[in-house]
Each structure stands twice: as C-alpha cells, then as structure tokens.
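Now for a concrete sample entry.
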Amino acid sequence: MICLQFQPMWKKNLVLEIEGIVNSMKEEWSKVYVENFKNILVNYCEKKSGFITGRIHYFKNENTTISTSRGDFNEAGSGERQQYVAAIKGSGVFMDEKLIGWIDGDETQAYMLIKGKARNGVITSRYNDGKDSLSYVFKRSKSKMKAEFDGNKISFNIDIKMTGRIEVLYTEQNILKEEEINKMEEAVSETVKHNLEKLIKKAQEEFEVDFLGFGEYIFRRHPKRWKEIGDRWDEIFPYIEVKYNAQAKIDNSGIISKLVIN
C-alpha cells in the first residue's frame, strides 16, 4: 500500500506506473518503505498501533524520463505536464483507516532502523565542527528493543548498530589516523541519533500515535502487562520514556579506494 499524492498522467496504466515506481525505489537507501497490505489488515484488526507506508508524490524535472508506451507518451502531449515525474519520498502515518501525517526520508530510515528492516542505506554527516562532510553507506544494521517496567512507569531502550563504509568524503585530514576514523564514526552515530529523536518526538508529541511498534513489543513479550494497559495504550504512549543509542562502525578495508577527497 502507498499514498498517492498526484493525478496520474496515464490513467489507464496507473497500476503499472505505480508498480514500476515501487520496484525501482523500494528499499533504496532505506528511506523508502512500502507496507504489505496483509500487515495493514492485521494491524487494523488488532488495533494496537498505527503504521506507515510509502508516500508517492510528483515533482518538476526538466529532464524527465518516464517509462511508458510511445502511444501513452504522445497522448500526454508536449505541454507542462511532461515536466513532472513521480517518486516515493518519505511515508504517510496512519491510525486505523485515517492518514494523520507525514514523515520525511530521514525519519523513514530511522523507523526502518528501529524495526530492523533497514538492509542498506546512506547517511550524510558533517564533522570537524562542520568543516568536513561524508557519506556513509551501511550494509548491515542490527536493532535491539527492550522494555522496562517500574510500577506504572514504562520505558524503552533502543540500541542500533551499523557496519559500513565511507563512500564520499570531503576533508583535508589524514583519514588513515584512528582518531580521524573515530571522529567519522561518531559523526554518523550522532546523525542517526538526531533522526531517531525527530521521529520519536513526532510520534509522541505531534501525532500521539504509536506507529513504532512499542505496544506491539509489549503485546508479544509481556502479554500479562499488556492486558493491564492495552485498553489505555493510546493515553500511555505519549508519556513513556524512550532512550536510544546508535553506533556506526567503518569497515576499514578499502576505505581509500572509493573516496572522493577534496
């Protein structure tokens, strides 16, 4: 399921157009997430939490290339509409059958990291007091979630670990020094923590909807506790404490081979 944000240019091929967009962008940099419709139905029936799914919108592009038949392309004409292309960017947040808001690509990536669904991704960070920048590509990520109960107080701990490489780097520093590598790892980790903070704050304060799976976790791991609080989870969720940590590791092998050094 996806959120359609535009009027299709070729209505009779709408399904094929959407399928092509999803297949070409799905899981790209882990900033695109398309929920399985079966999971949406299960979520709706159990009513434990909200959910997200990809947002399709369109934007202007003077060098538009769109996959479609020659007949449909000619039918569309050569006017202004040809300058718009569709893409999946960010996600829509739902509760029951209602769309309640949007999260951007970085927040979608943070969501996928929390849920353990981020297979790969790119993270752009600045370091050395903002003087240098880098692009970090992770190929592996692991997420652990743990709930703690202290009387009526509920808190969660989220721990995310990533392993990847530096794809692009703009710096004048000696990148072979361990100290410099540590700085880059810390910069990426801080970027991820910042995105986690934005996402969690939006879920608790702006939407007041648990689409991150905390209620699902209690339901599965602590069923007795869920029986006590499940009916009031919508009221409880905005006030739970969420602690999070992110640790990015750079695979030093081949660190030089693909760098663009300024």
Strands lie at 3-4, 51-60, 84-95, 98-103, 121-127, 132-150, 153-170, 241-250. DSSP finds eight helices and eight strands in the chain. The chain has two domains: 1-103, 106-262.
